[in-house]
Amino acid sequence: MSAPSHARRREPCGHASYETGKIVKRMWHCKRLSAAVPLAVLATAALAQTANLDWGPPPPKTLIAEQQKGHTLSSELIGMDVFTDDDFPVGYIDGLVFDAEYRVVAAIVSIGGVLGIGAKRVAVSWDEFDVRPRDDLARVRVSRARLDRGPHFKSKDLIRAERAAARNELKRKLDSGQQPD
Known about the structure:
With 181 residues, the protein is α+β, with helices and mostly antiparallel strands. It has helices at 20-50, 74-77, 144-149, 156-176, and strands at residues 9-10, 16-17, 81-84, 89-98, 104-111, 120-125, 129-132, 137-140. It has four helices and eight strands; from the N terminus they run ββααββββββαα. β5 and β6 form a beta hairpin. The longest helix has 31 residues, at 20-50. 9% of the residues are buried.
């Protein structure tokens, strides 16, 4: 037995309608309602963010109030004088190199030059250092001669700048009709 033609049909949002006009009106109502629900969720989230909630004290070691005994600041290392094991002054610590886990793997030692002009920057493994912040000095287990022969340290920025200069020089030569080297 089939349902009478005037029987109500259920629409997707749960409303019954008889005519097309009512269906459209009900669908508009459903869309308006479905838009209001996310807005209410967003408003609740915004209210929660603006509320001054006290979640209690932060976990231990999240915030450090003061430098502890045995802690050394990076600013204490940068500029520290570097000596060889036989007390020969070789330069000063100009920077630190960190690995992917942010552990110090090397110190960049600035050697030679006058007031930093003409100095050579050499990266020395951190394992070769004996750092004494209290005495404001670091000893390195590498000879002065070996540091002088060591390669000039190139940072990522210096490498990028050298590559850009090489590309620009090549472009200039090609644009002027010269043969590249």
